[in-house]
């Protein structure tokens, strides 16, 4: 029917870039299984998938009470030894029967949630992307489920989770907790080079066979929250989730660079102080920009359409130029003052 | 940096001073947030002039978060939501100023379980990722809230934190502030029980004197010579008392003068209040500004 996901992206809480071997250990904490590490074009480590059992209400734009049972798939990744992501998603399908089945049934379908009773895909996806808990910064969070990956995983038990009543599906809470687990590792020194909020990207993917031509729409809701709706060719594959993760990563990089430039260049006059605030960006962020580096070929047209509008790379490049200009001008001024020019 | 604001007695000026520190810190270009952990009377909203949460919030407060009823507590962007016009625009160069309100009618914590301490750890750890300064108003006296914080900070060994103990400049307040830190079931005692090294913890605690009448203050102008002489002598006695109780100058981070406007109303002191309308004293704003700097300045926290 459709796939819903939420990616949380943040700065790894360490003073310097973390080595690939450490990334492996950081992500190994989550599951103890193999962590996949690729080194080209940038070091990227991904944890194995973890399952969280859920039996809860699904988001619905019409406020209908729709119950879903199944397992959410989550994984964590670290890019460039610097950026951590927690990514959860779930494929929503219609259940064959209108009651909950033995838990083994759901365990045999990892990352799938079965909807008991009637539900319209459109209603669910609108509910998920439009009814945003933190949309207004002051809006109370509606997220009331509290999965805790540190506790024995309900998905692995043979009884599964209990019906959580009115609590809606909260993929963000699951992703957030996984990021917390990595950030709280004693392998990290917690002396990050700057303070920066995490961003959250909520996404819904539908197949073109059900919803018309391939398309992608990216929306900024507030400083931290984004939504992405996409229609892809063919069946859903994990490559779609990877596309969303890549977009979330680059959106976070861009958002973060904007914040750093604003901090450095508003208020005071440009000068050594501004440059001091810009250097962490140069040291830790600029080399991480590699849009679509790991995106499946069949999906690159979607990335490309976002490059046309809103134009991620264009904005990134102009910020990078601005930072470089500030730094060179400042260097020149220093040299001239010292009489060395 | 996490900063825990506590006092032995109620009504010392803990909330007014702490909110002003967060405000000044944001004006200095840093991202600051304020957590209202005074669950019995969460009134920070009133001081920030956010009337919708003047007595705490109805849904999404910290109390509910700690009880596990929500995954993330409500946040209020003070620059966007304050009712005071002068606060409603973020000054150029200022950082974020965010309030996490308590729950209206929440009540003091009546116990702390492991789950609650874990949620507290998660909250502090996430906020510290994105804010330069997180001020936590802990409420007055020995409480489960203070206990929970001592527990949580043991589990966050790499996260820097400091405590500010507020007291007024009176005999009773000086003795009480000492007791809260050094006495039985005081911060050091309870902290050690949860695994803090008391000597390390002591280095992270400083005192702040509130509503202090300085001998040159304008308020003293109308006094008779005898009164002034007595005040001056008594001030000396208090200083001596404070020294004996470990609340003396070396353990003090700063002091805030008595300001008539704060006696009338709990509020943030803006530069406009000092320079344009002139309802507040420049010394008061300067004291808040000084505290907002010293709170992060390691040299102000070197060994006693
Ligand atoms: N520097 C000051 N000069 C004059 N009055 C002050 C000063 N600081 C605080 N006050 C006033 O003292 C009273 C108590 O202050 P505040 O509410 O901040 O104390 P508190 O310690 O948070 O109290 P509670 O324990 O009830 O929460 C308030 O009316 C406040 O305006
Ligand atoms: Mg108070």
TrEMBL record, chain A:
<feature type="compositionally biased region" description="Basic and acidic residues">
    <location>
        <begin position="145"/>
        <end position="159"/>
    </location>
</feature>
<protein>
    <submittedName>
        <fullName>Uncharacterized protein</fullName>
    </submittedName>
</protein>
<feature type="region of interest" description="Disordered">
    <location>
        <begin position="123"/>
        <end position="166"/>
    </location>
</feature>
<dbReference type="InterPro" id="IPR049749">
    <property type="entry name" value="SCO2521-like"/>
</dbReference>
From TrEMBL, chain B:
<dbReference type="GO" id="GO:0005524">
    <property type="term" value="F:ATP binding"/>
</dbReference>
<keyword id="KW-0238">DNA-binding</keyword>
<keyword id="KW-0547">Nucleotide-binding</keyword>
<dbReference type="GO" id="GO:0009898">
    <property type="term" value="C:cytoplasmic side of plasma membrane"/>
</dbReference>
<dbReference type="GO" id="GO:0051782">
    <property type="term" value="P:negative regulation of cell division"/>
</dbReference>
<dbReference type="GO" id="GO:0016887">
    <property type="term" value="F:ATP hydrolysis activity"/>
</dbReference>
<protein>
    <submittedName>
        <fullName>DNA-binding protein</fullName>
    </submittedName>
</protein>
<dbReference type="InterPro" id="IPR050625">
    <property type="entry name" value="ParA/MinD_ATPase"/>
</dbReference>
<dbReference type="GO" id="GO:0003677">
    <property type="term" value="F:DNA binding"/>
</dbReference>
<keyword id="KW-0067">ATP-binding</keyword>
<dbReference type="InterPro" id="IPR027417">
    <property type="entry name" value="P-loop_NTPase"/>
</dbReference>
<dbReference type="GO" id="GO:0005829">
    <property type="term" value="C:cytosol"/>
</dbReference>
């Amino acid at each position: 029917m459709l796939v819903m996901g939420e990616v949380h992206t943040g700065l790894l809480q360490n003073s310097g870039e973390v080595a690939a071997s450490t990334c492996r250990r950081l992500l190994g904490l989550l599951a103890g299984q193999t962590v996949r590490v690729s080194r080209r074009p940038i070091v990227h480590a991904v944890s194995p998938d973890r399952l969280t059992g859920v039996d809860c209400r699904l988001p619905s734009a019409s406020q209908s009470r729709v119950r879903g049972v199944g397992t959410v798939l989550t994984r964590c990744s670290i890019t460039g030894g610097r950026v951590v992501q927690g990514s959860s998603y779930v494929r929503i399908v219609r259940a064959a029967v209108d009651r909950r089945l033995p838990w083994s049934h759901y365990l045999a379908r990892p990352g799938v949630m079965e909807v008991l009773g009637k539900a319209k895909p459109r209603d669910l996806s609108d509910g998920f992307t439009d009814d945003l808990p933190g949309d207004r910064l002051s809006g109370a969070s509606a997220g009331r489920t509290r999965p805790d990956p540190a506790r024995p995983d309900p998905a692995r038990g043979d009884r599964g989770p209990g019906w959580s009543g009115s609590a809606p599906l909260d993929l963000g809470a699951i992703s957030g907790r996984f990021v917390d687990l990595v950030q709280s590792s004693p392998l990290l020194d917690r002396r990050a080079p700057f303070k920066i909020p995490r961003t959250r990207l909520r996404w819904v993917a539908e197949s073109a066979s059900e919803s018309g031509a391939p398309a992608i729409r990216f929306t900024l809701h507030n400083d931290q929250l984004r939504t992405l709706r996409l229609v892809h060719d063919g069946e859903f594959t994990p490559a779609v989730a990877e596309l969303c993760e890549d977009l979330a990563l680059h959106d976070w990089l861009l958002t973060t660079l904007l914040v750093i430039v604003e901090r450095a260049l508003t208020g005071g006059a440009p000068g050594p102080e501004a440059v001091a605030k810009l250097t962490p960006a140069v040291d830790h962020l600029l080399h991480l920009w590699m849009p679509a580096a790991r995106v499946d070929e069949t999906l690159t047209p979607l990335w490309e359409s976002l490059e046309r509008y809103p134009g991620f790379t264009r904005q990134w490049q102009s910020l990078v130029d601005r930072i470089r200009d500030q730094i060179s001008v400042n260097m020149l001024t220093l040299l001239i003052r010292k009489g060395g020019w | 940096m996490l900063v825990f604001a506590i006092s032995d007695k109620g009504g010392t000026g803990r909330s007014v001073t702490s909110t002003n520190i967060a405000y000044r810190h944001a004006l200095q270009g840093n991202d600051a947030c304020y957590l209202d952990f005074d669950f019995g009377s969460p009134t920070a909203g009133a001081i920030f002039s956010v009337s919708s949460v003047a007595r705490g919030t109805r849904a999404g407060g910290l109390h509910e978060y700690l009880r596990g009823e929500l995954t993330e507590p409500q946040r209020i962007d003070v620059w966007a939501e304050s009712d005071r016009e002068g606060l409603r625009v973020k000054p150029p160069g200022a950082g974020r100023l965010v309030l996490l309100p308590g729950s209206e009618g929440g009540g003091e914590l009546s116990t702390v379980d492991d789950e609650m301490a874990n949620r507290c750890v998660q909250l502090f750890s996430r906020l510290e990722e994105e804010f330069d300064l997180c001020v936590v108003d802990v409420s007055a006296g020995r409480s489960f809230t203070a206990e929970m914080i001592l527990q949580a900070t043991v589990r966050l060994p790499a996260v820097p934190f400091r405590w500010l103990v507020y007291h007024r400049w009176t005999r009773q307040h000086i003795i009480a502030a000492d007791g809260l830190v050094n006495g039985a079931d005081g911060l050091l005692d309870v902290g050690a029980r949860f695994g803090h090294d008391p000597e390390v913890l002591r280095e992270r605690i400083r005192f702040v004197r509130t509503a202090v009448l300085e001998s040159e203050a304008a308020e003293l102008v109308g006094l008779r010579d005898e009164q002034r002489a007595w005040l001056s002598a008594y001030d000396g006695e208090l200083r001596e008392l404070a020294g004996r109780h470990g609340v003396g100058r070396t353990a003090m981070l700063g002091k805030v003068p008595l300001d008539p406007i704060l006696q009338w109303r709990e509020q943030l002191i803006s530069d406009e209040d000092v320079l344009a309308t002139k309802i507040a004293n420049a010394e008061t704003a300067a004291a808040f500004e000084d505290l907002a700097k010293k709170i992060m300045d390691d040299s102000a926290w070197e060994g006693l």
